[in-house]
Amino acid sequence: MRRRPAACSVSSNRPSAPLARPALRGPIRRTPLTFQPSLPPQPLSPLDGRYRAAVTGLADFLSEAGLNRARVEVEVEWLIALTDRSLFETSPLSDADKERLRALYRDFGQAEIDWLAEKEAVTQHDVKAIEYLVRDRLSTLGLDAIAELTHFACTSEDINSASYALTVKRAVEEVWLPALDTVIAKLRELAVEHADAAMLSRTHGQPATPSTMGKELAVFAWRLERVRGQIAASDYLAKFSGATGTWSAHLAADPDVNWPEVAREYIEDLGLGFNILTTQIESHDWQVELYDRVRHAGGILHNLATDIWTYISLGYFAQIPVAGATGSSTMPHKINPIRFENAEANLEIAGSLLNSLSQTLVTSRMQRDLTDSTTQRNIGVAFGHSLLALDNLRRGLNAISLSRDVLLADLDVNWEVLAEAIQTVIRAEVVAGRSTISDPYALLKELTRGHRVGAADLAEFVKGLEIGDAAKQRLLELTPATYIGIAEQLAK
Question: Strand pairing partners for 199?
């Protein structure tokens, strides 16, 4: 009988048995972390936080408080307009009473902001809260006799259309356009300063006929000035014709008054244009036109930001170091073009918002829907991002210096860009009867396409051409740095 081998501690050559798998356990259950907010109240939007200093001027007009101040102004001025016409047996207010009334919006501040917030919590209607505020102040001023003329025959959209027109007009004219003008002025300054700075153009990203840096910057100034003129000439329209734009309530109160003319005079006295034919709302077409033009300007500014960024990457512009500033958290040598990148991103945000405003505001279902109400509350956000971009462009343009030596070095290794000039001169010589060269374009294409051609190569080639002596001499004297046409004059 064969006996089993005794157990041995020496391992055999056979593979060992697989390790036993641990017993399966159910899913690991972790107690969810609970997070109790501990920060004091914080702004959600970066425009009201990190970037507030750059856009604060817009808040005077395009904030909720700015809108409410304008609403008070519209209500007060309507009340004055009605009494000035002695309607419903009233008498014109004294100059002193008018000034006391106008102080309601001229001195509009935190007390009024808090009062309106408390009242709107009850009314659940922002414009009705405004009406109650004016009535309350009339009582304080001892003018209860005319209290019923507050918000007389108005729908909320009469007040809102005039208020939005006032706030947007003032924001554009007093804040946004001056910021755009600052960028344009800097571009004009740089265009003249660098009018003669020859640079290699890059069409399709490839070396192309030289220009000057001044001329290229002047192109942006020229484009922006044109759109700026369109924005400055914008209409700001309001309606003041009642619930569905028919003056029905007005005529019920007094059928002998020319209410459309009263409304026109009132709106034009506010410095606005009058829209006579509307539904319950002013149709917002002027807003669509304005926002599309501002978005157009933003597109040009975006193009400027990306071009300057590219010129910086090519070394054409050097960025002026700021003492104490950090370009990269790990690479000490870097100065990042953050102003132009910040402008680029904010212009994209602004453009998206302005486009959304245009698409939404152009439509209202039948006589009225409320999609425009929440949409228009974002007008300030759109202009805020645009203004922030302008601020970054201004700061960025003030922190770059042109590296003319880099521009010249770039030109000096791209003599093939003179191929255009040579083949064009040959064509002129053929027409003049001083050359019999056939297909000058193909001749230069064979010489230059796909490889570098130096100064000596081109000079030897030109000397061998069958062209007139004057033309030949012009070509021999030409360099990439002098082949700039009238770019300098255009820049200036």
Answer: 211
